[in-house]
Amino acid sequence: MRYLGIDWGEKRIGLAYVDEVGVAVPLTAAVASTKKGRMRQIESVILERGIEELVVGYPLNMNGSIGFKAGEVDDFIVDLEKRFRLPVHRIDERLSSHTVEQGLRGSKKKPDRKSGVIDSQAAALILQDFVEAHERGLHDG
Prior knowledge:
Layout: E1 3-7, E2 13-18, E3 25-30, H1 35-49, E4 53-58, H2 68-84, E5 88-92, H3 96-104, H4 117-135
Parallel strand pairs: 1-4, 4-5
Antiparallel strand pairs: 1-2, 2-3
Helix pairs in contact: 3-4
């Protein structure tokens, strides 16, 4: 199964890919200046990689409740479903970007936030969590 992991943001959308091998790899983030442009970037990845399902990070509040940001992601997911007609899985993404930033603290060169590197690494973390949970039978689908 070929999955595309997505870490949604208003300006940048982190992307990651996993295939039958089961190791999530960060891809170039969708950073076009318009929403339409970012969706075209996602479409290119879906077509180039033969993506079969989408895994979207879902920003729950720390207490597990659904907050304002989750509502924005729900709207984004509706757009994805309409445009690509692929199954979409939501996975808890609490602290994924924070975890990536913490891991990068020790590196000599800090990535530019605007580049989308952190967002795509967060997407890879989200996607890897999904794959591992799926293998253990802990996730839907």
